[in-house]
């Protein structure tokens, strides 16, 4: 039996790197490794273009796009984003402009239709020499006695595929191919949320240079995003506690509209608008895998962890992880004895950065954070550090991180001063973290 199995493995198509998933994480990793001279195969289960949520990029994305060689193409399909605005008292809002970031860097980003953005990256990978195959779904990963991936089985338009990679990169996003197969995926016990979202036309934008900014609103059970896209399209989503979203009664369209109408300033911007896309609902928003890597394999982007998209961090975290993964895999293929140490270092660096986003996300809907964001003050450069976090500058960013620690101290002192409201907010977060909403991304309303 072992001889038959070994013969099948030997007959499998060999490659240096197999990337599963053709989204931003997969395409970026594949491109960089192909440019480094490796034989790279990338398998994407769908065909581009395909719908995907997560349309807001961060300034920290811009240098990565430039290094990949696609920044000008993304500029052509994107809407310029100079900052993000958050609600203030009295129906006002505060704009956090990226040019106020502590360490400078790119002071802009783009809002993009993900079906266009992902296709640009996928085709660019193919142009860089990646053997990029669409409509090809991986069905199973078989491991050898040494614990390394021995054979990857897939099916596509031309039948069955069998591949034998030296290194396997899981960039399958929320599918978490290896995370699911190896039972690594865990619900985030500290934060749970669910969302309902769609696209609209005719929604009012911010005036002047802020027309491309993302707007974040709070509602009674969570928060909402307004993301301006090309061709008079506005992406609008309501992120809610799972407990609240369960009350939508199967009518996500009406639920979304009720949530928007519950915020007067958001409702005013919707006058004369029209929904132009299906309504989707998604649950199990926050999760993470118990480890990022093993012998011969590595998880990148959402395949490893997904945080609430409150600060538009998803694409940036995926592409930052892609760069780090490409660097680590390249070094590991050249010096196999260093593989475990390289992957350990990558996971430690990534975990430290993502934790900066998590701290703010867990507390964003609290009364204390509402007060601080509505009344920003630049004590010791703390406001600039928060803008830097919003821009994505959280990795190897000591000047930013120590000021974010000062912000945490300010948060704690403010919580003491309004302890009753702070306690109610804390108890609410604890209750919602125990709740759940099991639907993955579903198209529910036409």
Task: Give a brief outline of the structure.
With 446 residues, this protein is an alpha+beta fold. Helix content is 39%, strand content 25%.
Low-confidence stretches: 437-446
Largest β-sheet summary: 9 strands, mixed
Beta-strand percentage? 15-25%
Class by alpha and beta content: alpha+beta
Indicate the overall shape. Answer: globular
How would you portray this structure in words?
With 446 residues, the protein is an alpha+beta fold. The chain has helices at residues 2-11, 24-35, 61-68, 71-77, 114-127, 177-181, 242-245, 252-261, 264-269, 314-334, 339-363, 367-374, 382-391, 398-417, 419-433; strands spanning 13-20, 40-43, 79-81, 83-87, 93-97, 109-111, 131-133, 137-143, 149-156, 159-170, 185-187, 194-201, 214-219, 222-229, 233-240, 274-275, 279-282, 287-289, 293-294, 297-299, 305-306, 442-445. The strands form 4 sheets. Strands 4, 5, 12, 13, 14, 15, 16, 17 and 22 form a 9-stranded mixed beta sheet that branches. Strands 1, 2, 7, 8, 9, 10, 19 and 20 form an 8-stranded mixed beta sheet that branches. A hairpin with a 2-residue loop joins strand 19 (293-294) and strand 20. The radius of gyration is 22 Å and the shape is globular. The N and C termini lie far apart (52 Å). Residues 437-446 have low confidence and may be disordered.
